[in-house]
Specification:
Layout: H1 10-15, E1 26-32, E2 36-42, E3 46-51, E4 54-60, E5 68-71, E6 76-80, E7 83-88, E8 91-98
Antiparallel strand pairs: 1-2, 1-8, 2-3, 3-4, 4-5, 5-6, 6-7, 7-8
Length: 101
């Protein structure tokens, strides 16, 4: 059963971050229409999606399709420029990167 991303909230995002040993090189905040804000931390091999007090770890997919792709058994992330698509079927959510993290 998939874990819903319906409760995206800014308050939980400010306090939550990944442990130092995961060594994420990038940290970006995304605004999702009608859902709120989420944070994506990533490096070359994995990503961590932070939504409220929930964290989802995803691993890099090898793909010829455009964009960076990360997935786990419950969802897929597709990063293309400033746009992040979260696929947690049947839900598909498109979010836009914001400047502040």
């Amino acid at each position: 059963m998939a874990v819903p991303l319906l409760n995206l909230g800014l308050a939980g995002l400010l306090a939550m971050s990944s442990p130092w040993w995961e060594n994420y090189e990038h940290r970006d905040r995304y605004l999702c229409p009608d859902k709120g804000t989420l944070v994506l931390e990533r490096n070359e091999s994995q990503a961590s999606l932070i939504s409220g007090h929930s964290r989802f770890t995803l691993f890099r997919e090898v793909s010829e399709a455009p964009g960076l792709r990360f997935s786990n058994e419950a969802m897929r992330l597709i990063l293309r420029g400033d746009e992040l698509t979260v696929e947690q079927l049947p839900m598909i959510l498109t979010c836009v990167r914001t400047e502040d993290v």
